[in-house]
Description:
Blueprint: E1 4-12, E2 15-20, E3 31-36, E4 39-52, H1 56-64, E5 74-87, E6 90-92, E7 103-106, H2 109-115, E8 121-128, E9 131-138, E10 147-150, H3 157-170, E11 175-181, H4 204-207, E12 208-212, H5 230-233, H6 239-252, H7 256-267, H8 269-276, H9 281-292, H10 306-315, E13 319-323, H11 329-353, H12 355-360, E14 363-368, H13 372-375, H14 383-390, E15 396-402, H15 410-414, E16 418-421, H16 427-436, H17 444-449, E17 454-459, E18 463-471, H18 474-480, H19 494-515
Parallel strand pairs: 10-15, 10-16, 11-13, 11-14, 12-13, 14-15
Antiparallel strand pairs: 1-2, 1-7, 2-5, 3-4, 3-7, 4-5, 5-6, 8-9, 8-18, 16-17, 17-18
Helix pairs in contact: 6-7, 6-9, 7-8, 8-9, 10-11
Amino acid sequence: MSESIGFVCGTEGDKVSFFLNREIGLSFGQIVRIDSGGRSFYARVFNAQSNSTLRTIEQLREAEGKEAFGPYSSFRSVEAILFLERRGEKSRSPTFNPDYRDKVYTTGKEDSSALKLTGDLEVGRLRSGEHLLGSVGISFEAIPLMMGMFGMTGSGKTNTELMLNARIIDYSPKTVGVIFDFAGQLLTGKGIEPQKGLRDHPLFHTKIRYYSAGEGKLCIGLQTIHPGKLRTIFPEIGKPQVRVARRLYEKLGNNWIEESLEAYGAEGYVGVGTIINYRAKNVIEALMSKLSDLSPRLFPPSNYNFIDDVIQNVSKGITCLIDISGISSEEQHNITCLTASNVAYYYKRMWENNFDEWKKLPTLLITLEEAHEFLDPELRKTIFSDIALTYRKYRVGLNAVTPRPSRINTNVFAELWTKVIMKTELRRDRTYLTDNTPYLEYSDTEIKMLDVGEALLISEPKIRFAVPIKVIHYPKYLEGREKVDYGLSPSKPLSEMDQKLKRLRKVGEDLTRKAT
């Protein structure tokens, strides 16, 4: 057991103050244990101050060196917030508080089991000052209860995304992910030292499918776009335009977009109106203008839709990494919303129409970078708001990743039961985090002081307090990960292959000479 570092000097409600022994160092957010009778209390440090027993005027005189005073003492007092009470093997939220002179201890390995931080998806280690203790993880059950990762640029979000999704891939087919990569960092691990990404995961070739606009794999054929999806592509589209689109679809079938645009190009709005016997110029022109703006690179005139491939892979437990870097923000919005809505609706339809098959589907986590661009209350509502608010019963979870948590709708933010909070310097974002997250009421200073790779983790209902963690470095995780034997026959030595190629080349030359 660890040695005492001080004793309680006062309590009020769920706050406790204690005097710290000399030459003992603590950190903001560090967890301490207070033994009180037959109970142990756990608390997080949120404030500290140092002072002396001299009156202020005496301190000033001493500083000037004019007089010597004594005897007197200097002291350091620390404030902490209670979050857990343990009696025997049972743990619960505090029912009371410690008493004056109760001894205070730093947490050690002996406390890890009491805190119950081990989860299925291990993401880090418990921080206690300079020491790293037991593993900290997120449970499978937390995935559909929604998640969020918040931190300024350079705080370690990319590494944390890699770690969480790597664990999800490890547990396939029980879990699966759809990842929208806006910066093109996750495949190669750009920005991670040494540079390692999902392509370095041992299961990359069997449990991960990579889609990229640069490789032409993000095609959504015009013939696969039903009028019901127009609001997902164009959030501002009006009801009259959608009605016109439905009537065109009824008349022209899957080729409705191509044939409508062809008629519009030949005869203007009159040509389109003739197809459905409709003459409202403004409505037709507004709809055709939107359809004309669809990028031919992403929306070619075909019946192929990469989202169908995504759904098939997800249902088999294959995580889909969708790289949308290098395309416009409007195109990124179209790809993410269309993909997420189709995959989420697939889970919903299976739940409604084939419950036994739905139970066989892996639990899905959709990772959305730049989440504030889709969940801002000042913007039109997107599918991601619906997922966060209503899709947990279908075992579809959202992981909202953003450096600007204050721009996320408060109703959506309240549904993110797991939060990984990294260094955040902007006061508005820190205030939003501490005001809207349970157990973070006094953590403003701590969030500002976090180092790269350090975070606070809350994952209700399993973890009902802010756990200070050090996120595992993804390359370190790969070093300890066992290689996968795919059962392939060993390749022949290069020298043997070279000899065979030389013999084939010689035979070819001989045949050429005979032919001439």
